[in-house]
Write a structure and sequence with these properties.
Enolase-like, domain 1; single chain; 3 domains; globular; binds flavin-adenine dinucleotide; five-stranded parallel beta sheet; alpha/beta; FAD/NAD(P)-binding domain; 22% helix; 10 helices
Length: 414
């Protein structure tokens, strides 16, 4: 019998998680991984620790240098996939011959959301997604005095924090009214804003860049209110978009991400997708959603690998969640954090204690917990996330779940 040719696009955590499960479940198959970064697999969320100087780059790899050999994988690294043709089962690669697949996994992750501002291509304007971006920033850092960080999400904050720790004056520019608007709600956002400013970050909300000035390196940014901000280093951290420019939409269904079913199958035969590029069922929303977080990329990669190896296993769906420390604030969020105010299908309970700087908010849809925001009182966060994930009906009063000291035993005894 001919050997099955498994091809994986993407050398990130979703791709390698799939490859490892695939190797265990289908020992005789051929596995090829194509990735445009040339490093061995590394921990992407930790690249900001290299930026801030807390870790050396040698601490980032999550697999050894003999990884591909050990798992019998053919790596094609430093090469970009330019097209996939599902009718011919071909993957086209920049500067190399097309690769033929029997089964294909698209695990190409996400690209930073670009900014449409004049002067975007000036030197010293970076994204924070790849190790190479951090290397670029470190190279120009000795001459940098004033940095501008665009975006107030997780990546924007990590960039700002890293630069601040390096002694650089940082201004964060946030288009929405408060930081972490994708992860948290306005109340938590206000607490974060106060905290950022208290720790020496200048934060401007409700503004964006319309143009960069300088040459060859950036010297200033022009803002939407007409003002100019001097800067010699810029980091764009305005969220991500699934990386799928090579996907033909007449062959593979795409919404925001590549549409997948509970087996991580796309709409094309023998083509799967996993990780930041995939859009599957969201456990809190009950609709499709892209949950671009590390633990979901691991779980989805494994699920895709299991199914590619021939074991039909269906996943339950994914859940967006984050735990992040912003100076003195511990924040944990999950699911739907800000339901539409005019939708009476949701019930929200919250408790804010400005003196102790704690905040808790729970979002219910009928008798199910579907979302949470917790600031500086995150002890029961794991149990609450478990409740959202399980979609279990909750019979306890909402206020009981919200109270400090709520515990798992109370749930078992309800
Ligand atoms: C600075 C930073 C901090 C983060 N912090 C957290 C955190 O605290 N918690 C958390 O849960 N998540 C965090 N994340 C998100 C997390 O890193 C991602 O969810 C995760 O890496 C997704 O894994 P993936 O394998 O789907 O995609 P990726 O890790 O993006 O891997 C995809 C790979 O495919 C490659 N690729 C893309 N297109 C092509 C192509 N055409 N041809 C060949 N190769 C291609 C990419 O270059 C990349 O190497 C953070 C991300 C960043 C950047």
């Amino acid at each position: 019998m001919a050997t099955t040719q498994h091809v994986i696009i993407g050398n990130g955590i979703a791709g390698i998680s799939a490859a490892e499960v695939l190797r265990a479940g289908d020992p005789d198959s051929a596995i090829t991984i194509i990735g445009d970064e040339s490093e061995t697999p590394y921990c992407r969320p930790m690249i900001s620790l290299v930026l801030e100087g807390a870790l050396g780059p040698e601490r980032l790899p999550i697999r050894g240098t003999d990884y591909y050999q050990q798992f019998g994988i053919t790596p094609v690294l430093g090469r970009r996939v330019t097209a996939v043709d599902t009718s011919r089962r071909e993957v086209h690669i920049n500067g190399a011959r097309p690769v033929i697949y029997d089964k294909l996994l698209i695990a190409s992750g996400a690209d930073p959301r670009p900014v449409k501002a004049e002067g975007r291509d000036l030197d010293n304007i970076f994204y924070l997604r790849h190790q190479a971006h951090v290397r670029g920033m470190l190279a120009v850092m000795p001459d940098a005095r004033k940095a501008l960080v665009l975006g107030g999400g997780l990546v924007g904050f990590k960039a700002a924090y890293g630069l601040l720790r390096r002694g650089i004056q940082v201004t964060m520019l946030i288009r929405s009214g408060y930081p972490l608007s994708m992860q948290a709600d306005a109340e938590a956002g206000r607490m974060v804003l106060t905290e950022l400013r208290a720790h020496g970050l200048e934060v401007r909300v409700g503004a964006e860049v319309t143009a960069f000035e300088g040459g060859p390196a950036v010297r200033a940014a022009v803002l939407s209110d007409g003002s100019r901000l001097a800067c010699d280093l810029v980091v764009i951290g305005k969220g991500v978009l699934p990386s799928l420019a090579f996907v033909r939409r007449d062959q593979i269904a795409v919404d925001l991400g590549i549409v997948v079913d509970r087996h991580m199958r796309t709409t094309a035969p023998d083509v799967y997708a996993a990780g930041d590029v995939a859009e599957g069922m969201d456990l809190a929303r009950g609709t499709r959603w892209v949950n671009a977080i590390w633990p979901e990329a691991v779980a989805q990669g494994r699920l895709a690998g299991t199914n590619m190896a021939g074991r039909e296993v269906a996943g339950e769906g994914s859940l967006g969640r984050n735990v992040i420390r912003i100076f003195g604030l511990d924040i944990m969020t999950g699911g739907i954090v800000d339901p539409p105010a005019d939708d009476d299908g949701f019930t929200v309970v919250s408790a804010l204690d400005p003196r102790r700087r704690t905040y808790r908010k729970l979002v219910f849809q009928k008798n199910r917990l579907v979302g949470m925001v917790m600031v500086n009182a995150i002890e029961q966060g794991g149990v609450l996330l478990g409740l959202i994930q399980s979609r279990m009906p909750v019979r306890l009063p909402a206020e009981t779940l919200l109270a400090n000291g709520f515990n798992y035993k109370q749930l078992l005894m309800e």
